[in-house]
Acetyl-CoA hydrolase/transferase family protein (Brevundimonas pondensis), 439 residues
Amino acid sequence: MTDHATLYAQRLTTPAVAAALIPSGARVAMALGVAQPPALLKALADRAEADEVGDVNIYYLLSTAIAGETVLRYELTDRLRPHSLFHGAIERKLEARGIEEGRQAVRFVPTGFQQTPHVLTREIGVDTLLATVSPMDADGYFSFGTNTDYALAVSKTAKRVILEVNPHMPRVFGDCRVHVSQVTALVEHAAPLLEAGKAAQQPQDLVIGGIIAGLIENGSTLQMGIGALPDAVCAALHDHADLGIHTELLTPGLVALMRAGVVTNTKKSLHPGKTVFTFAMGDRTTYEFLHENPALEARPVDYVNDPAVIARNDRMVSVNATLQIDLFGACCSEYLNGRQYTAAGGQLDFVRGASASEGGKSIIACHSTAAKGTASRIVARLDGPVTTPRNDTQIVVTEHGWVNLRGLTTDQRAHALIGLAAPQFRAGLEVEARALGLI
């Protein structure tokens, strides 16, 4: 029987040779965020720049500078076509330049995060995986480390599994491994993992963070979204006790709660004693904390974000931000100024899961205003698609207070949401509510 070291040696090659295995017409799943492999992506970009490959469709969520400086360069988008399932600054710039030049530089694929493995493997049928993994263990397994999410599912179905082995990628426990026998090609590349900068907090974040912390009971299990507002919530929770974590994204704020002993996971009804997550972004100390830590388990996103699984956590609390909420209670969390800004992500997954939990709470938060106070985030009608339907919205928080919309009539909802708006917009919202027949 061939041993693991022999299999590893047989698959080990250079980035250029590994990238040459990707043919024109390939459908490539690129790992999310921190796990985007710099050496492999540069080699693929070099091939495209030399016109050695084309008609490659690249599918991914949450691109970083690693991809932006390689396969997502504007001048390559006719040969390496970006298909984003979650927009960020890179996609917004590509789209804007494409519009200026009369072409489509990036395509958007609407989907919820929990559905992503199914969409990639069955609906789209991606045939190639590019990802960064930890070094191989004694049993021949690589850990997906910071990014199990959709990578694990794709690794089981793709014709080509091409991995970049990085000693800086933490080895994480849970359902997050791929065996060397499943791998097509390996490259080795030691590079510090990308670190996510901390979002700048505004005074409203601190007020909202304090309000939300007051809604969270000791012994609750948490899901936090990304950004300054969830960070403020975490900072306000340090006087709590025996919290748990079941979250798609593990952030430095959540890790700080673990380090402080605020999160113990002992009261969890599902996976007691374990922090469960599907991907992580943070700083170097966050990644070091993940490495071989038995208190953490990474699992695929179609499990972590399954509302039925989420609901098995008693006192589950989800905290997510939105860009707009209308007077009916519907939320748009992904569209801004007439364009796709981010995506639905896992917001609705956790809204529904937390709402169905015994003693659970789904919390949607936002500043009451945008554009330096010149626009209200509480509006009569949304400007973009519905991310969280009005039937699913439970607790809404702004710096002016909070309300539980569940069980309220449409007129009660409208009055309550107007009360959460900035004072200078309330009279105008009342006029619009009357025109809509809400009050």
The first strand starts at residue 27 and ends at 30. The CA atoms of residues 217 and 240 lie 8 Å apart. Residues 203-435 form a domain with the Glutaconate Coenzyme A-transferase fold (CATH 3.40.1080.20).
